[in-house]
Design goal:
The chain is mainly alpha-helical. The chain has helices at about 15-35, 45-50, 60-75, 80-95, 105-125, 135-155. It contains six helices and no strands.
């Protein structure tokens, strides 16, 4: 999957494209096996755009995030497997103590979490910290951020939207 015209804040857009390809390739074979009934017909780009544009990732409650995901799934934009994967973001927010009705900038929150994990990893490597983040937590937060950035791309660049952008 290729997504053109990605985000400010990334100095090398090919790095993110490679990340998204890696993220999608790890779930592609599983996704092919477990598509939902609602995903058997592709939603129109207008349908996806309408759903995503009702929400603001920079000022969204965890509850609204769950609602958006369910709408995208119901419209066929997310398979059961994809819904399950991206819903772990909501579970994580709950585990981190984020109030379900408190607006949060999801992109900033997970960008900061990723930076913190990378710093902890570097500190552990340098020997200045005895605690090192688990590699799977770093990979998980990276995947979550990639999902959020896909959604942000749909919101900010409607011309880049294709029906498989969220896949």
């Amino acid at each position: 999957m290729q997504i053109s015209g990605l985000y400010s804040g990334y100095s090398d857009p090919t790095t993110l494209e490679k990340l998204l390809e890696t993220t999608s390739s790890t779930s592609t074979s599983q996704t092919d096996k477990s598509t939902s009934t609602s995903a058997t017909t592709q939603p129109s780009t207008e349908t996806i755009r309408t759903i995503v544009n009702k929400y603001d990732l920079k000022n969204m409650t965890p509850q609204q995030f769950s609602e958006m995901l369910q709408e995208l799934h119901d419209a066929g934009a997310l398979t059961d497997q994809q819904l399950q994967e991206v819903s772990t973001i909501r579970t994580d927010l709950d585990l981190q103590g984020v109030d379900s009705d408190e607006p949060i900038d999801l992109l900033e929150y997970y960008s900061t979490r990723l930076e913190d994990l990378q710093k902890k990893l570097q500190d552990a490597y340098d020997g200045s910290s005895e605690q090192s983040p688990q590699p799977e937590s770093l990979q998980t937060v990276t995947r979550w951020l990639a999902w959020l950035q896909k959604i942000a791309t749909v919101q900010s660049s409607p011309e880049a939207l294709t029906v498989d952008t969220l896949a």
